[in-house]
Every structure is written in C-alpha cells, then in structure tokens.
Amino acid sequence: MPQAAGAPVILGVDDVSVRLGGRTVLDRVGFTLRAGEFTGLIGSNGAGKTTLFRVILGLQAVSSGRVTGTGERGEVGYVPQKFQLDPDMPLRGRDLVGLGLDGHRLGLPLPSRSRRARVQELVEAVGAGAFADARVGRLSGGEQQRILIAHALASRPRLLLLDEPLANLDLRSAQEVVRLLAQIAAEQRIAILISAHEMNPLLPVMDRIVYLADGRAATGTAHEVIRSDVLSALYGHHVDVLRVHGRVLVVAGAGHDEHPFEAAGSDHDTVEIV
Amino acid sequence: MGQVLRAIVEPGFFASGLVQRAALIGALVAVVAACVGVFTVLRGQSFAGEALGDIGAAGGSSAYLAGVAPLWGFVAIAVAAAGAIELIGVRHARAAFRDLATGIVLGFGFGLAALFLYLGTIEQSTSGEPVTILFGDVFLLDSSLLPLVAGFGAVALALVLVLYRPLLLASVSGELAAARGLPVRALGALYLLALALAVALAAVTIGAILSTALLVGPAATALQLTRRPSHAIAAAAALGVAAVWLGILAAWDSYYWPPLHHGWPVSFFVVTFVLIGYIGARLWSRRSGGG
Predict the structure, then answer these.
(1) A243: which of A106, A176, B200, B287 is 20 to 30 A away, CA to CA?
(2) How far does A259 lie from chain B, in Å, by closest CA?
(3) In angstroms, what separates the C-alpha of B279 from chain A's closest C-alpha?
(4) Is the sign of the CA dihedral B37, B43, B44, B46 positive or negative?
(5) pTM (2 decimals)?
C-alpha cells in the first residue's frame, strides 16, 4: 500500500541490539512502522522475533539503540503466542475482551450499559459474536485468536503486535485471521506487526517485511527483501529465492552442504536455512 | 414432614450458643476460603494451598506448645512459607524439581508438627489438642477468636476483591498482563499473602490437613456451574457456607449416632459435603454439556 508511506510513524526501532548472556540476540535491528501499515516479522525459531516483541513492549531492555513512539499504557495491543487455558476455566470470550478494556483497574467491574456496548462492539468487530459467550478454554485456535485480537484492540492501540498468530491454525482459519487483520489495519489506521516463521499466508497483505536471521534484519517491501542477494547477505551464505505458483521458497543454493533438497521437500512453503 | 424435619434439625439447635458461634466463624472462613480459592484454582496453585496448609500444622502445633491460640501459629507460618514460595519462585521452577523440593519441605513441616505436638502433650497432659490442630473442630473455637478471624479474613478478602481485575488477567495469562504494564510478580506475591491467610483460617476451622478442601473444593465445584468469574466467586462462597453449615448440623445430629453421645468430627462432615457438591456439579455439568 503505497499511501502508507506518507502516514504518521507509529513506532521507530532504531539500531536496536540485545545481548543476553554473552549471545547477541538482536544485532542493530532498525525499521519504522506507520499507521495503517501491515508488517510481517519473518524468521525461523530462535531468530529473535519474540525478543524484539519484548523490546517493543518494554519488557526487555536494549543493550544499545532505542525504540521510539510508544510508551503509554494501552498504546500497544499484544496477542501472545502461547495461550492455553483450562477448558473448565470460568471465563467467557466476552470477559476476556472486557479485561482488555479495564483489566488494569482495581476492583470488580461494575456492570454498565456503556461497558457492555463497547465489549459487544469489539466482539462484533472481530466476528466473534457467535462464540463470545462460551468458555475461552473451549474455543478453537482460530476463535481464540479473534477473542485475543478483540482483547488487544480494546484499549484503542496505535500498534498491534501478534506473536505467531497463525502457528497453530489450519489454512482456512489462518487466511480468515489474516484477512481480518488487514481489514483492521486499513479501517482503524493501526500499525500491525505480525511475526511468522512462514511468510506465504501473509504475502497478499504485507506492506512491508522485517526479515530476521540470526538477530540481524533486512527490511523493506517484500520485493525489496525477498531476493537472493539480500537474503544471501543476511544469512551469510548463498540462498536462492524460488517463486512457484505465487508462493515463495527460500532454499540454500546448490553446492551448499546443508541438504537443500531435503529441506525443500518438507511441508513448509518457505524453507529456512539456519 | 415436620417430624422428619424436627428429627434432622433438633429443637434447640439454632438456640445453642455453641452452634451460633461455630456457624458464624465457619461461614466467615468459608467465604474467605472460597473467594481466594477461585483464584487458586484459576492459577493452578492448589498445590501451593495444600503445601501452606500442611506446613501450617507446624505453626499451629508450635503455638499450642507456646500456649498461644493456634491461629497465630497458622498465620505466622503460612505467611512465612508463602514468602519462601515466592522467593524460590515455585511457580516457575521445573515441575519435577518443584514436587521434590515441596515434598521434602512438607515432610519436615509435619516432622516439626509431630515434635511440637509430642512435647505439648507431655507438658500439658491433654490429648485432644493434636487432633484438633490436624483435623480441626469448629465447635472448640473460642469466641475471643472471632475478631481475629474477622480481621484476617477481611484482609484476605480485600486483597482479592481490590486486585480482582489485574489479578484475574494475570491469572489467565501472565503475558497479557505484563504486556499491559501490570506488575505480574507483585500481584502474585499479594495473592500468595491472601492465600496464606485463607489457608490459616481454614486450618483453624477444619484442621491443617483438611484446609485445602475448604479452599479449592467449593471453588472447583463453582467452576463447573458457571462460565463467569464473578459468578464463580459468588457460587463458591455460597457452596462453602452451605458445606460448613450442613457439616455443623450433621455433627450436632451425630451425637445420637453410634458411638452414642460422642459426636462425629465436624470436619469430616464438612469435607464430605464438599465432595458431594463437587461430584454432583461434575455430573450436572457433564449432563448439561458443560455449560
């Protein structure tokens, strides 16, 4: 979406490095997120995606560099990766959305018409009306994602972070969630940063990509980043980018000794080489 | 019908000062234990509640040895143990290690209790007290305890009700709470304080060993009956009070059961009613598709 280029900057990640226990987890990572922009944070497990989220949320101190643009409570909505509730837990989807509104306040939530209406509005905005009264722990993965997105949107954030929201979803649910998020970014002018180890479901909606490998990042539009020369420089060895039926495969180049064809034959559309 | 009722609720039951006092203290404790207990179950910390109750036996017995009301011992050691649990970070430790460490500490707690109770029995030549420490007897609670029970109970209740929303969010997902800037660790510590007080109150009422039953029993039952957290707390409180009151009534009636003129222990009836309630709720929720 080219019009996003002129939109206000919501978040600036400026040359951020994080060293944990002598290991460099993030190495001079920099990018900006703009209002209404949908950005994919792509990288394999251990590439530093979750650490980067923790930095943006203010839960992880940086070793150098800085994060600008957010800091007030509620400015960043967050959907965590691991979310497992006991099926018996007495908590309706609606209650979890309500905690997004005022979960930081003390005391019991007093029943009010405006609170109920706002919760209903959020529930409907994510298409969760049919299951908002069921226990959250008994919902499917896709349904839980919708409730969590509504929870995160409740504080009217300017930035929405989602940690691997598609990881445990079947293809159809994943497509529905992606479509919902793209719609939210466009309609509510929210910047969305979504992490994934698998980029193909995001390709149709991503405005920009932050590609992480070994703590270093390549950023730009998908066309600028998903290129053999850019990714080879990032990985430090030659990789090929193959485009097959609209899908992208990243594989180690011929002659490399990391069994590229074995990897390419796996279920994943994007093959990560570490 | 009236005759049956009179046989169950003997005339004079409600007029008895003993019954009135037991019913009042028991209800206070049941409400506190149930409200705290809902969070115990939500947080998956029933194990910590059990541990605090068991270690509390050492506190109750040392207070008995020192000639102080056991409630003070229960409260002191439960709060201290909760502090230790918080420091060691029991919740985060690896499960296998955690269970081992707890097993050893609990064993030591019971060992201390055995020592103190033994010494106390020699010194004071009474034999009923050890049983009361471990298994409780709500009829034996002195009325001077009422202000203490009310005071400790009010603190525990105030903690969970004032912290209700942040604590609920942190209990559902520490990650969601941390992302909102909530002090997850401090919330956990304050909750553990409420848990320690609730366990101490339950221990003095139905005994150190049985205290978990009053803590998590009504809460676990309530979770089967409702989908809302606030309703679960109300239901757990009502179920807890019902179990205690029915227990008191049954214990009163058991005076006429064999062995004649030796009433059965109240604690037995309380935990029995807690269990019946739990099984009933499970069957009901299974039949109705789980709500």
Answers:
(1) A176
(2) 36
(3) 15
(4) negative
(5) 0.87
B11: domain CATH number is 1.10.3470.10
Classify A2-235 by CATH class. Answer: alpha beta
**Cα distance between residue A273 and residue B170, in whole Å:** 37
Cα of B266 vs its chain's centroid, Å: 14
Helices (H) then strands (E): counts for chain A: 8, 11
Residues of A in CB contact (< 8 Å) with B are: 57-59, 73-74, 76, 78, 80, 82-83, 85-92, 95-96, 99, 102-109, 133-135, 138, 151, 155
- Identify any residues that bridge with A252 across adjacent strands, giving them in sequence order: A239
Q: Count the neighbouring beta carbons within 10 Å of the beta carbon of residue A126.
A: 25
Interval A146-156: pLDDT, tens: 999 999 999 99
Alpha helix positions (H), A103-209: 113-125, 141-153, 171-188
Cross-chain residue pair A106–B42, CB shorter than 8 Å: no
Q: Smallest Cβ distance to B163: which of A57, A96, A106?
A: A106
In chain B, which residues have their Cβ closer than 8 Å to the Cβ of A103? 165-166, 168-169, 176-177, 180, 182
The answer to whether B162 contacts A92, with C-beta atoms less than 8 Å apart, is no
Name the token pair of A153.
Answer: 């949107």
Where are any strands of DSSP class E within B139-264?
none
* Nearest chain A CA: its distance from B63 CA (Å): 35
Residue pair A49/A212 in contact by the 8 Å Cβ criterion: yes
Which chain B residue is nearest to residue A108, measuring alpha carbons?
Answer: B164
Could A90 and B44 be called an inter-chain contact, meaning their C-beta atoms sit closer than 8 Å? no
Query: Is A106 close to B181, i.e. CB distance below 8 A?
Result: no
pLDDT tens across the length of chain A (274 residues): 444 457 888 899 999 999 998 899 999 999 999 999 999 999 988 889 999 999 999 889 999 999 998 767 678 999 998 788 888 889 999 999 999 999 999 998 888 999 999 999 999 999 999 999 999 999 999 999 999 999 999 999 999 999 999 988 888 899 999 999 999 999 999 999 999 988 998 988 999 999 999 899 999 998 899 888 999 889 888 888 988 888 888 887 655 444 444 343 334 445 544 3
CB pairs under 8 A between A and B: 91
AA letter at B85: I
For residue B44, give its domain range. Answer: 2-287
Residue pair B119/B112 in contact by the 8 Å Cβ criterion: no
Q: Where are the domains of chain A?
A: 2-235, 236-274
> Distance between alpha carbon A94 and the CA centroid of its chain, in Å?
23
Q: Which of A86, A103, A135 sits opposite B227 (nearest CB)?
A: A135
User: Across all residues in chain A, what is the average pLDDT?
Assistant: 86
CA distance to A52, A142, A164, B236, per residue, from B54 (Å): 43, 42, 42, 23
- For residue range B91-103, what is the model confidence (pLDDT) as tens digits? 555 556 666 767 7
A112, exposed or middle or buried, with CB in 10 Å at 0-12, 13-18, 19+? exposed
Distances (CA, A) of A237 to A23, A103, A107, A176: 21, 47, 56, 36
- The ipTM estimated for the assembled molecules is 0.85
